[in-house]
Amino acid sequence: APDNRGSPGEPEQPYYPEEDAIRRMEALNVNAPPGAYSDGRRTPSNDGRPPIGGYIRPPDLQELIDFLSNNDDSVKANAAAYLQHLSYNDDGIKAKTRGLNGIAPLIALLSHDLVEVHKNACGALQNLSFGRSNDENK
Predict the structure, then answer these.
(1) Higher-confidence residue: 8 or 92?
(2) How far apart are CA 138 and CA 129, in angstroms?
């Protein structure tokens, strides 16, 4: 594994460049055919048309949970970090994540070799467990 700590006194460098992470997330759904998902509820983040305003919509919660099991480690790390962000002080997201079986893939990432993936999964699990109304997540 590459050493991303830098020299003493220098800030720690991220595991992956942000541009690379964005490119990888965008590539997951580019040109996906309509109805590509078996549950029929989800749609691709980008259906092949040019995005309005240059942006691709954020993944829905089920897509995000699916990204936690992606083969690409940077996608796993980004998905866990985004879930951590979404679940901060949002009991609705916490309950939905539990209902969509999103806790098990996060627990599986706790034994991941890459610190970035492990750290982001820990942060997401921490946020999911906080709050009196979230005892079922604990």
Answers:
(1) 92
(2) 5
CA angle 85, 88, 93 (to 5 degrees): 90
- Of 56, 115, 50, 117, nearest to 82 by C-alpha is 117
CB 59: neighbour CB atoms within 10 A? 20
The reported pTM is 0.60
Neighbours of 118 (CB within 10 A): 17
Confidence of residue 109 (pLDDT cuts 50, 70, 90): very high
Tens of pLDDT along 58-82?
788 999 999 999 999 999 999 999 9
Q: What is the 3-state secondary structure (H, E, C) of the chain?
A: CCCCCCCCCCCCCCCCCHHHHHHHHHHCCCCCCCCCCCCCCCCCCCCCCCCHHHCCCCCCHHHHHHHCCCCCHHHHHHHHHHHHHHHCCCHHHHHHHHHCCCHHHHHHHHHCCCHHHHHHHHHHHHHHHCCHHHHHHC
